[in-house]
Specification:
By secondary structure, this protein is α/β, with parallel strands linked by helices. It has 14 helices and 15 strands. A 7-stranded parallel sheet has the order 7-6-5-8-9-10-13, sandwiched between helices. The chain is globular and about 60 Å long.
Length: 408
């Protein structure tokens, strides 16, 4: 067991490693995690190998709404003091970014490094190492939230966890977004993490019929009742996601997929999200608070496509999918157990394609954070910068291609 710690935290002193070995002995014998969600959102016991020193009671209730099973969680944790001394003092600037290779995670990492934080990134073992994180100056450790026994070593010497992680599209939602988060929060509490930042979804408490949003809401409750000092930040949408969804297909003259629903989403630049996150993190008045970050304006799918067409100087080949088709497909997928995860994700797509506004007023938040609203990127400016840069590069490549032509 000690060899596992040494391989993961080789940058720590020998004194710290010896202290961690005794700590791990405590971690492996004290607490047993309670019930977790099964693949079909029912309740099933799921003991974790690595256990943590606290007394925790977790009450779940499960009730049906129509054809959908809804899971609610009420967690209470009473921590038992753990003496980690003697050991290396933990610096307030030491942070662990979970999900560091994602769209938001990498911006969190860059912002943290720019502001002088000591950044450690938790990433899953992968064929293509996350070398770009090391190149930026961060430390990379391998662990997997779906394997709780790999988590404790990554938290040694950490003051703050910033949790940007979410499951991959090809895996069940509950593996990372529920079971993994429960294990991470439990371990963070046991090992004395001082602050935890959790990113959730705007209006997740209003859509219990959508598994991903219900799980986010349950995780918010679990974190709140864990006793950890934390900040929960709900997000509406990322501007970066629109590049692959609309901008690139329009430039490549490929089909752009949309719906006929009037959903409006206040997209926000992930760089702005990262900046506001660290401002909030340094504000002691925001501990155990819920914040929502939204962009300056809410956009429909058609408005985004029209903006991209104007900036690209060409029309889009739009394929519209009626919301009724999404609903029918979701119901069909529910008939087969092996397609339940697809149905879960279609449920989220259905909400995004309904008559819903994913936005909120940011006036009070800007005031609390001391931020000027004019410093927040607009979608028009973000996409304009993207198309200006990409079109210039395409023009340069075309010019270079002509210069290298050989004529006989």
């Amino acid at each position: 067991m000690q060899h596992r710690f040494i391989s993961c935290i080789c940058c720590f002193s020998q004194r710290s490693i010896q202290s961690m070995a005794s700590t791990q002995a405590q971690l492996s014998t004290s607490l047993k995690l309670h019930s977790m969600l099964s693949c079909r959102h029912s309740l099933a016991p799921h003991p974790i190998i690595a256990t943590f020193p606290s007394q925790t009671s977790i009450d779940y209730s499960c009730k049906a709404r129509g054809n959908t099973t809804v899971v609610a969680v009420n967690a209470q944790a009473t921590p038992v003091a753990v003496n980690f001394a003697p050991g290396t003092p933990i610096r307030p600037t030491s942070i662990l970014v979970v999900g560091a290779t994602g769209t938001l995670g990498r911006q969190i990492v860059r912002r943290a490094l720019d502001e002088g934080y000591d950044v450690r990134c938790l990433v899953r073992p992968r064929p293509m190492p996350a070398d770009f994180l090391r190149d930026w100056g961060a430390t990379v450790v391998n662990a997997d939230l779906s394997k709780p026994e790999t988590i404790p070593a990554t938290l040694v010497g950490i003051h703050t966890i910033i949790d940007c992680a979410t499951g991959r599209p090809e895996e069940p939602i509950k593996n990372v977004d529920w079971e993994g988060k429960v294990a991470l929060i439990q371990c963070a509490k046991a090992m004395g993490i001082k602050k935890y930042v959790f990113f959730s979804i705007h209006n997740c408490d209003k859509h219990p019929e959508v598994p991903l949003m219900e799980i986010k809401h349950c995780t918010e409750k679990f974190l709140h009742n864990s006793g950890l000092d934390h900040i929960t930040i709900r997000l509406c949408g990322f501007m970066q996601g629109l590049i692959g969804q609309y901008a690139v297909p329009i430039l490549e003259e490929k089909s752009v997929w949309g719906t006929d629903a009037p959903t409006r989403i206040a997209y926000m630049d992930t760089q702005d999200i990262a900046r506001l996150t660290f401002i909030a993190l340094r504000n002691p008045n925001l501990t155990r608070k819920l914040l929502t970050f939204a962009g300056p304006r809410a956009w429909t799918t058609q408005e985004v496509i029209t903006l991209c067409e104007r900036l690209a100087g060409q029309d889009a080949n739009v394929t519209t999918v009626p919301v009724s088709i999404l609903r029918f497909t979701r119901q069909l997928m529910r008939l087969f157990e092996w397609t339940n995860d697809v149905a879960d994700r279609l449920a989220f797509s259905e909400v995004l394609s309904s008559d819903t506004v994913f936005s909120t007023s940011m006036s009070e938040t800007y005031q609390v954070l001391g931020v000027d609203s004019n410093d927040i990127s607009t979608l028009e400016k973000y996409l304009q910068d993207y198309f200006t840069n990409i079109l210039k590069k395409l023009k340069d490549l075309k010019a270079q291609s002509k210069q290298t032509d050989i004529y006989f």
